[in-house]
Amino acid sequence: EYTCMILSDLQNHLMTFVSAMLQGSISVSMSIYQTPFCFVCCHLTSGEKDGNLTKRNADVEEILRRTIFNPVHRVSMPKGIHDHEKIIWFGDLNYRINLSYERTHELISRQEWDLLFDNDQVI
Fold first, then answer.
1. What tens digit of pLDDT does each residue of 36-93 get?
2. Domain total in the chain
3. Do 49 and 79 belong together in one domain?
4. Where is the Inositol polyphosphate-related phosphatase domain (predicted)?
5. What's this model's pTM, rounded to 2 decimal places?
6. How far apart are CA 91 and CA 40, in angstroms?
7. Are residues 7 and 55 in the same domain?
């Protein structure tokens, strides 16, 4: 019952809902309280071998380049991912910490967060 009340209230403020699908990703564009949101769910290249990070980053670039919500751009509707105020990426992103398993756990146990962040592929 509580969820239905939230959804019915939110429905009054939920504008355009558009989705775009590419191989390995689906993106949803919507406006909530006049704020354009984009949700991107994707599965990026996995693996720890040389070149896999480059492939993951290339996957992201392709998703950004090829995702088009509205081919005929209108003032009130975002055309691409970067045209939104809020962008949320989730899914199996496969980014890693560029350290061995043992070294990573050692840094965690010593709470050396800066060294972990320095080796994080996402940052």
1. 999 999 999 998 888 999 999 999 999 999 888 876 656 677 889 999 999 999 999 9
2. 2
3. yes
4. 23-122
5. 0.75
6. 8
7. yes
Q: What tokens were used for 113? A: 């967060």
Q: State the DSSP H helix or E strand holding residue 118, giving kind and residue range, or none if neither.
A: helix 113-118
Task: Tell me how far apart the alpha carbons of residues 59 and 63 are, in angstroms, rounded to a whole number.
Answer: 6
Length of the chain: 123
Structural domain of 70: 2-92
Task: Give the type of residue at 26.
Answer: I
On whether both 78 and 58 belong to a single domain, the answer is: yes
